[in-house]
TrEMBL record:
Cell compartment(s), UniProt: Mitochondrion inner membrane
Similarity comment: Belongs to the cytochrome c oxidase VIIa family.
Family matches, as PANTHER family: CYTOCHROME C OXIDASE POLYPEPTIDE 7A (PTHR10510), CYTOCHROME C OXIDASE SUBUNIT 7A1, MITOCHONDRIAL (PTHR10510:SF5)
Top-level taxonomy: Eukaryota, Metazoa, Chordata, Craniata, Vertebrata
Keyword Transit peptide: yes
Keyword Oxidoreductase applies: yes
Membrane topology, record value: Single-pass membrane protein
GO cellular component: mitochondrial inner membrane; respiratory chain complex IV
Pfam families: COX7a (PF02238)
GO biological process, one term: regulation of oxidative phosphorylation
Pathway the protein takes part in: Energy metabolism; oxidative phosphorylation
Identification of the protein by name: Cytochrome c oxidase subunit 7A1, mitochondrial
Highest taxon of the lineage: Eukaryota
Length: 80
């Protein structure tokens, strides 16, 4: 039962130490994403964003094609 009484103190200590060590990266990201360099916002983050965008579009198009294929198969009359 004694360890339950120490839990709030340990949780407060754990969260307060990690927030002091972290650097705020928001201003750096704001500079990158608000820069007027002619790029769409979904690829301003660099190579990782471009790869994630292309992967997402590939999965979306493949899923749409697969769904349309099965809809086409479902609407065909069954042969006897």
């Amino acid at each position: 039962m004694n360890h339950l009484l120490k839990l709030p103190r340990l949780a407060t200590r754990a969260f307060s130490t990690t927030t002091k060590q972290m650097k705020n990266k928001v201003p750096d990201h704001q500079k990158i994403f608000q820069a007027d360099n002619g790029l769409p916002v979904h690829i301003k983050g660099g190579t990782t964003d471009v790869l994630l965008y292309r992967l997402t579009m590939t999965i979306t198009l493949a899923g749409t094609g697969y769904s349309l294929f099965w809809i086409l198969c479902a609407c065909q009359p069954k042969g006897k």
